[in-house]
Amino acid sequence: MSDDTPSTQVDSSRQILGQALWGVIRGVARKPGELRYHVARDVWSTTKRFGSAEIVNIEISDIPGIQDRTIEGYIDDRSRVVLAALCAAVGAKSFFEIGTNRGRTAWTVARNVPECRVVTLDLPSPEAAVALDLNNSDRAYLGEGWASGEALHDTPEADRITAVYGDSASFDFTPYAGTMDVVFVDGAHSYSYVRNDTEAARRMLAPGGMIAWDDYPAIPGVYRYLNEIAGTWSTPLYHVLGTRLVFTSGRDLVKRLTEAERSERGVA
Predict the structure, then answer these.
(1) Are residue 24 and residue 88 in the same domain, yes or no?
(2) Residue 2 placed within a domain
(3) What is the side-by-side order of every strand in the sheet holding 117-122?
(4) Are residues 150 and 70 in the same domain?
C-alpha cells in the first residue's frame, strides 16, 4: 500500500486493551501513591455517584443555555465556572454563598453576572467558635492556610459583593428570607452543617430560585445528606457530571438529550 492510500483500519479500545492492562500492572508497582489517591478515589466517587438512587446525573449539555456560554474565572475549579454559568442562565439578581473561603466563587459569579448582587458568609477568624461538628477538611481550612475573601479585595466587582461573618449555625438569615435567586451551600461539610445550611438556604430562597451544593459525591457528609433529601423534595436534585455540583431549582432548567440528539450535536 502506498503512502497516499488512506488506511481502512478503525481505531478501537480492543486494540489497546492489552497495552492498557500491562500498564496497569506496572503502574501498581511503580505508582502506588497515584493508585491510592487518584485511581482508587476516582473509582470510589464514580461508585457512589452511580449508586445514588434519587440524584439525577446530567451532562452540561442537558442544561440549555450554558454549554456555549463564556465564563471568566480561575482555572482551578470547573465547578465554579459552571455555577456562574447557571447563575447567568437563570438571570440571577441575588446570590448568597455560605462558605466564602478565598472568595473566588463570589467573585466569579459577580464578574460573570453583572446585574447580580452577591452576599458571602464566612467565619470571622479561624479561631471562631462553631456550634456543630466539623470534619477533617474543615479543620484543615481553619489552619495556617486561612485566606478568607482574598480574591475579593480591590476588584471592580467588590462594590456588588457583601461579606458577612458568623457561624452559619447561629447566623441570623432573617434579613435575606425569600429574597435570594441562588443560594450556594459550601460551608462546613459535616452532615450536621450541610443539613443546617440547606435549611437556611430554603428559607432564603425566592420563588423559583435555585440551591446548589458543592463537594458531591466526594465528601461523606454532603453525600449522605443529599441522598437523604433527594426524592423527598418537590423538585429533583441534579448532579452535573464532571463537576462537584448538585442543584435543584423551582424553574425547569434541564432538558435531557436523547442519544440521537447527542450524536447529531456531537456531544459525548
Answers:
(1) no
(2) no
(3) 56-58, 238-240, 246-249, 205-213, 180-185, 94-98, 117-122, 161-165
(4) yes
Name the average pLDDT for the chain. 89
All three cell numbers of 192, joined, read: 450536621
Residues 22, 59, single domain; the answer is no
pLDDT in tens, 66-104: 988 999 999 999 999 999 999 999 999 999 999 999 999
Q: Is residue 65 part of a domain?
A: yes
- Reported as a pLDDT band with limits 50, 70 and 90, residue 263 is low
> What letter does residue 63 receive in the DSSP assignment?
S
Q: Looking at the 3D structure of the chain, how many domains does it have?
A: 2
Q: Tell me what percent of the residues of the chain surpass a pLDDT of 70.
A: 88
Query: Which pLDDT belongs to residue 10?
Result: 72
Judgement on whether residues 134 and 257 belong to the same structural domain of the protein:
yes
Range of the domain at 22: 13-49
Rounded to whole angstroms, the Cα distance separating 91 from 236 reads: 20
DSSP three-state, residue 165: strand
The DSSP element (H or E) to which 198 belongs, if any, is helix 191-204
Q: Which is it for strands 205-213 and 238-240: parallel, antiparallel or unpaired?
A: unpaired
> Residue 76 domain-assigned?
yes
Query: Is position 92 within any domain?
Result: yes
C-alpha cell, 212: 446548589
Does residue 65 register a pLDDT over 90?
Answer: no
Q: CA-CA distance, 268 to 264, in Å (whole number)?
A: 10
What 3-state DSSP class applies to 262?
A: helix
For residue 18, give the amino acid letter.
Answer: G
What are the pLDDT digits (tens) for 140-158?
888 878 899 999 999 999 9
Return the C-alpha cell found at 248: 435543584
- What is the pLDDT, as a whole number, of residue 145? 81
Mean pLDDT, rounded, for 51-60: 93
CA–CA distance, 116 with 210 (Å, rounded to integer): 14
